[in-house]
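Re: the multi-chain job from yesterday

Posting the exact lines I submitted so nobody has to dig through the queue logs.
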Amino acid sequence: MPRTQPNRITLTIDGREIEADEGTMLVDAAREGDVEIPVFCYEPKLGEPVGACRMCLVEIEGIPKLQTSCSTPVRDGMVVHTRTDQVKEAQESVVEFLLVNHPLDCPVCDKGGECPLQDISMGWGPDRNRMVDQKRHFEKPVPLSPLVAIDRERCILCYRCVRFSQEVSEDEQLQLLERGDATFVGTFDDRPYIAPFQGNITELCPVGALTSYTYRFRARPWDIEQGGSVCTLCPSQCNVSFTVRDEQVARVLARDNPEVDDGWLCDKGRYAFQAMYADDRVLGPEVTSDGHSTPASWQEAEETAAEGLASAGSRTAILVGDASNEEGYLLQRILRQALGSGDIDSRRGPGVDGDAALKLADPAISAQTSDIDTADLVIVVGTDPIQSAPSFDLRVRKAVRRNGTALAVASDRPGALEGGATEVVRFPPGGAPAFLEELAGKVKRGRAKTGLAGLIADSEQTVIVWGERIVQGAGGRAAVEALVELSEAAGLADQEGSGLIGIPDNANGRGLREVGCLPDAGPGLSPTGPGRDAGAIREGLESGELEAVVLFGVDPIRDLPDPEGWRRALEAAGHVVAFSLARNESTEFADVLLPLESHAEKDGTVTHPDGRIQRVRPSARRPGEVRPVWQVLTELAAMLGSSTGITSTPEALEAVASAVPFYAGLTDSEIGGRGVRWQERPAAKDLGTPSPDLTLYATAPGPFSPLGSGAAGLEADEASVLEPASGVGRSHTDSSGGTTPPSSVSDLPTPKDGQLLLGTYPNLWADQVVESSPALRFLVPAQRLEISGPDATRLGLSTGDEVSVRSGEESVNARVAVRAAMPEGACFLIEGTPADNGNRVAGEDGGPTLVEIGPPEVRLELVTSGGGPEGDEAA
Amino acid sequence: MNFEIQETRILLRHAEDPKLATIEGYRSYGGYETLQRALKDMEPDEIVNELEESGLRGRGGAGFSMGKKVSFLPRGEQTKYLCCNADESEPGAFKDRELMQRNPHQLIEGIAIASYAAGAGHAFIFIRGEYEAQADVLDRAIAEAYDAGFLGEDILGSGFDLELVVYRGAGAYICGEETALLDALEGKRGNPRLKPPFPAVQGLYGQPTLINNVETLSNVSHIVANGAEWFRSFGTEQSPGTKVVSVSGRVRRPGNYEVQLGVPTGGLVMDLAGGPPGDHKVKAFYPGGSSSPVLTPEGLDLPYSFEAMAEAGSMLGSGSIIVADDTVSIPHMALRTARFYHHESCGKCTPCREGTNWTVKMLERVVRGEATPMELDIITSVQDNIVGHCLCVLGDSMAMPVSAMVRKFRDEFEQVIAEAALESVPVTGGNGNGAPTEVPALTEMLERDPLQGRPVPAGEQRVGAEGDDA
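And the result, structure tokens for all chains:
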């Protein structure tokens, strides 16, 4: 269903004429006309109004009884009074009723000063209290969950938190128990409320009944400042507002942006700010000499870094993880222009290469996030948004619940969205390409009436949300082709509001690709000679073909496949420059360790999975010696002999905008507080135009040479003709170059007796920032092996058993979790857990591999507090 | 005054015959003939017209035209439901119980005809959990009706299908509110929904739903059998038909009496029910269940009809008269009434949740002698603040009678306060500084049960009186 333009109508509120969209709720229409009608329970984000608090009663001419303006749609010619005696009386009485059982403990209440109940009592309440009887009492505060405290005496039973739990996050844990004035919010059997979006209820609560333990008694509204920014802990890039006290982040709030996050924030985004002030944070530059890392001045550190990089020259590689567009751009520029290397990667495995990214970026087949709301059909392929990009999970649920959108989920691992899906397709780990090929074929033939292909045929607006990992590994190239083919066959380009949204593995994965952090594409996805990808960089370092490596916001020993290989690679590397927010196993190998800014301190831009360029704005003070990283990078570039001329963040953005043709002309003010999708700007037509920057790199010394300019340069086949940089000969590089034919499911390894096909998946909580945030530590996952019931029976396993999962030389211990809906013959481990990291047994490039399940390995674990990365190591 | 009147039995006809509850007994009096005729000879719209013209008003309390309600349902092929509201929970009302128990097939036939008229393929009888015996009777009767082919697929070869299910509620007054009933039937917490959308448009599982009371549906077969004209020959212009009236309280012969609407109210109270025992006089009475504003003895002269009761500032409601004679203390009756609604308030909307609770607290102080006459003004003002401000009518159901009692019997309230104050030994002494008074039993109880996160029982608390109340 494409969005329809509603009629504009005119109504009169308190004597003024107000224009509004027909069907808007009266309370919203009034606000548009500068008339405030007080509300408690009304929150359109929660769905249909419930009319429970009765605060918004108004008089409508022609209707004898007062009406709730939260549930009355406006009609043309409606005459409304909000300040007559009758209405005032009703408003005062509702406030009086609400205060009958409210403790009025404002002096000790965290909400004091930012409390709707206070504000509305002042504005619309009676000036005295006639209630002299005993109020109701509860034990207070009690933990509703490890993150949220509940004070049931303050609760005014507005239903918001319960509706959130029931109708938005759909975890359905919060309930109203008992009835009448004995009603209270709780969970079944007093169990803790454990759900990934629970922090939102503290923001929804219009009184001080639900408070975050992280913020209780930390600040008063007059102590704090709010700073709007973007959370860059996952690709959702939710808009946030940092509450800053004494120049430190004290709280993170959602900043409503209907095009991005709908005003919700996951608990990682809300509570992981604690990692900014954790003990493991890198607070200043350090230089390692004689095996000892010692604090150094910025100049000394930068000089040491530059010296090492200069001497390695084109034998330098860069790995990028969490970085802004500006940082990513500068990194690839240093590498390509100053060092003459093209070995840069920002991905987990070889997946969306430059050519594929270019095809998939076509605005005609791109959807924007809010298209999900109105789609007839949403297909989620190869990603479980709750783990990879949580706000998409809420977005899809909303479409299904409120718009009646049909949902199809196709994945190897059973995901959270399947409960509401019309169609669920399960393929084995690594089976996505085959599935997509088959689906594209079916849709193309156009005969299907049933199943997913039938749904696609019936849909007039289809949004396909796909995870970057389906295009990784052996069949990746085929998957990209199939995605494009599927969009063509389904006619997404011709349907309004239809298209693809790719969820990258990295928070700014899309931005980094587009500014040139790919081995085969520079800024603007302009093809360059193929460089080494992450896996090849690892091999190059290990074999000595590569001399130096820059790690930027990435911990390869944890985040990437083959951690042991990475350990060997970093050990072998002659020069390791690590930019990192916090200390981790990889930074142990750093010759120069440089601190990164957190997302509350950074100034820069990031690109949302749907192409929306958003601005990350500094809100808090950089702790210790931390400096703006773009500055450090420009200084490094200058030391390496390629001055960028960038002296400020607007200039950094300008440099990105002029290097990426389809970002041309972008400025901070255009991005503003809500961001701007590049597909909607005139410069979008320059997608595919080679970056003017390529000429800069052309003059660079070394084996690296850019491809010719013009449209011909975009042909993948030609790109593959170029010999890869010396020594790079891995099969996947060839396949990403497009010479190997698309693989299909038959290429997947076949399990033999006792073997299972292992897939790995990211877990929202398997992340260093979670471990470094005391509030979230309880969520850090222990490794678990998910298997199907029949396999469990065959192997004699049941949930809770401890086993080892072995692939070749490597093995990890895990607890068995038998799950329904699992594909038989497959099993799953979590990537990046602090102990027993699933990456250790993952296949090449993180793809599927065959594993054997055995008894747990007995290990002498190093005793560490909180299961740090060392816990991983076998002693 | 002489109030002699006669019963007019249509719904309770043959009620004395125990065989009526069986399908043979019911059919021996011509039962299910109307259904056969309706399915064979009548179009659904004809039945809807007949019902509309009959002027049959809902017997559950609101008195809305049943025919209109059916006509609000959209026509067409979508799934529609019919719900029979048998959650008779209003204090004083027990007519549906008798109708279901004595003549279940009359209801089933009415449901079948109404479902046919409304195009509903599924019907539910939502019966309050406490009506176990009646639910059993219905279950038996429905089984008989299925066996006889009056329910199920392709009823009597007409092509019309109807599944009828008895759903036993868990015993909450609020589930008698039609939208709360729907939520409860869907397996949710029984809370009223916001209207609009009305159930006729978006009801059970979001589909158009017709909800009617037991007595209303029991009338259907008679109207369809005999025609609207016949029905209108009973009762008044605006309240046609007969009504089964439950009379209870201080009367000699409490029970259900079926009379034509419009008979003198005194006839029901003084003649059929026999008036108060002994020489006692009627002091006040609820004309339409405990949610109707009480009337004084002058009200006995009023015709018992929807319009006359509304004009007198009260309502006919479900047609349940509760009589208080001169032995009854009105303030205690007010407290009893308020307590019921406080206990049954679902807690969803503010005025009802807090208003019922506050009113009970104030009335408790009245009867304990701890209130001042000034607080009677606060009580009435609180009732005024509840009326018309709530999500459903439960709040009004307490506020209207309580307010009427305080206004009409204010002297008695003042007298009760004064007398109780003289007798009372303060229960909640304290030292005047808000320090708690030791109540050993309670303290012990609180210590025994940590009550984590649970409401602390009403009464004296460990924490003293709140300083910020004043």
